[in-house]
């Protein structure tokens, strides 16, 4: 079975970092063409540094890390230090990574890589604001022919917003980019809050990861130990939703998830509801079914997968 070609576009962020670790542990299944970074949880200088740190911690030296957009397409950047800490990855000791920055032009990397790839061959996995992906599509629409599917973390339906009453952070930060991605015409798998809020990093689950006692597991447990404190207060749940790793888990074990093809349209104009994802779950309009909207996940199976893969770093 040929490995799936993947580009991960992220804004680490503790949960992005765990998504990277999960992907790094699946090199037998995923051909990681590169990691591109975007401003989101924290400014770009930190998200790109954090992604390179994760390569060092996981001992991955053959996956290029590129820096991309420092600002959304049209709006001013909003960050989320209150959730992720000033470093973006509070919970792990920060260091200057050995992994070099491959370039500060992630958009050109995405365009060039896709233009030289075959039709329907590359999976894009955005787990932050989708600015880099949208900018690449705008710059060179021909790249879409090489996109197999886009598996993204973003949006919300029944869960409501986590950054505004009606919008999830990734889509709210850059709603114009999200609209371009949802409307690009290629298959989109959307991991919104409706599904990511079902995979909570409870103490028991974090303890099992901690017990693996390897550098990646220790970093994961440390980051999750920090990451969940805000969500626990906010939602009263035990443990934080592990948003971004849902995308990689879907690539490795799609059967863990259940979704429904429907239309997702992004609000870009309204000051009140900017970034809202209008999910036509009951097909009450004739809008095109542009996304597989995920609504259920086997949470125990998700953590079994994650813990089992992190054990590979032993
Ligand atoms: O709303 C959750 C998303 O926003 C996650 O991707 C998290 O990392 C932040 O980027
Ligand atoms: Ca993210």
What do these coordinates show?
With 314 residues, the protein is α/β, with parallel strands linked by helices. It is 37% helix and 18% strand. The chain is built from twelve helices and nine strands. It has a nine-stranded mixed β-sheet, with helices on both faces. Helix 5 links the parallel strand 4 and strand 5. Helix 1 packs parallel to helix 2. The longest helix is centred in the last third of the chain and has 21 residues. It starts with a strand and ends with a helix. Calcium ion binds next to helix 1.
The helix/strand class is alpha/beta
CATH first level: Alpha Beta
Give unreliable regions as ranges.
Answer: none
The CATH topology annotation reads as: Inosine-uridine Nucleoside N-ribohydrolase, Chain A
Q: Distance N terminus to C terminus?
A: 26 Å
Major sheet strand order: 3-2-1-4-5-6-9-7-8
Mean pLDDT: 96
List keywords for this structure.
314 residues; alpha/beta; Inosine-uridine Nucleoside N-ribohydrolase, Chain A; 9-stranded mixed β-sheet; 12 helices; 37% helix; binds alpha-D-ribofuranose; binds calcium ion
